[in-house]
Each structure stands twice: as C-alpha cells, then as structure tokens.
Amino acid sequence: MKEEIHLRVEVKIGDREITSIEKVAYSVAEALGSRAIKDVENFLVNQRLSLSTNYPYDVESEDLTIRERLAAFLRFDERAPKGWFTSSQIRRIYEAVFEENLRLSTISTYLASMYFDGVLERKGSRAKRQYRLVATESTEAASAVNMV
C-alpha cells in the first residue's frame, strides 16, 4: 500500500485559521502535479475574493487577473446581473466598466471555468448558455446589506 501524501494550504490571521484546503495524493508527482496546483490556485483565488471585507477589487488594480476581476465583479459589483445572464451580456457590461475589450471566447472560457469551480451555475445548450452566481454567505450578506 502506498503512503499517503497530504498537501495542505492554510490561510491564517495571527493564530486563527481562516480557511484551508487539504489534498491527499499517493505520489509526489500527483501531490505537486499541475492538477493539484490548479486546485490550490482556484481555491486561493476564490478565498481571496470571498474573504475580502473591503471593496473586493479596485478597477485600477493591476494585481488582479482578468479572471479574478471578472469573478469579483460578478460577486460584488452592483452593476453585475442579479439573475441569469449570458456571456454576451457580461462581455458588454465588463467592457463598459473596465474599459477593456475582451473576446467573447475569453469571457466564455472564464465563465465555464467558474462553473467548474462551483462559483457559477449554468443552464441551456452551448448556443443558449446562461449562468448565474451560486449563492454564498458573502453574496447573501451583500444582498441583505444592499436591501437595507
């Protein structure tokens, strides 16, 4: 029987653990392979956005990737759609807000990635695909604050 290798990433403030992810692998190649690294990267990006207590992104910030900016926009910006939306709708809104032209295929790729990461829900055929944000505590809290 192969020995288990545990890969654990913790996010702490002082001594308090805020969040963590742990992966179990059965080889060093598996533990440090591209899939494990991608899983950790996705986890950290999602945590970075969901743990933010301030305005989660600055339009002028060069620290965020397009994907991070898009995810933060969908989660926190009041201009983002509240229900189901298409790639084309997001492209128009994103380009207006960020003054940056993006190909529709780029937006579609990021939305599909966010669906596979559990950030978005989707429905419809490829030609009529629609997405919406999966409700989380942070988005529900933000909605409650916006309703007051």
Distance between the termini: 57 Å
Q: What's the order of the H and E elements?
A: EEHHHHHEEH
- Strand fraction equals 15-25%
Percent helix range:
40-55%
Number of domains: 2
The helix count comes to 6
Give me the secondary-structure category: alpha+beta
| Low-confidence sequence ranges | 137-148
* CATH architectural group of the largest domain: Orthogonal Bundle
Radius of gyration: 17 Å
CATH homologous superfamily designation of the largest domain: Winged helix-like DNA-binding domain superfamily/Winged helix DNA-binding domain
Mean pLDDT: 78
State the CATH class of the largest domain: Mainly Alpha
Taking strands numbered 1, 2, ... along the chain, how are they ordered across the largest sheet?
1-2
Question: Can you tell me the CATH topology of the largest domain?
Answer: Arc Repressor Mutant, subunit A
What's the shape? globular
Largest sheet: 2 strands, antiparallel
How many strand elements? 4
Describe the structure.
This protein is α+β, with helices and mostly antiparallel strands and 148 residues long. The protein has 2 domains: 5-50, no CATH class; 66-147, Winged helix-like DNA-binding domain superfamily/Winged helix DNA-binding domain (Arc Repressor Mutant, subunit A, Orthogonal Bundle). It has helices at 28-31, 34-50, 66-76, 87-98, 104-116, 137-147; strands at residues 5-13, 16-25, 120-123, 130-133.
Give a summary of the structure in a few sentences:
It contains 6 helices and 4 strands, in the order ββαααααββα. It has helices at 28-31, 34-50, 66-76, 87-98, 104-116, 137-147; strands at residues 5-13, 16-25, 120-123, 130-133.
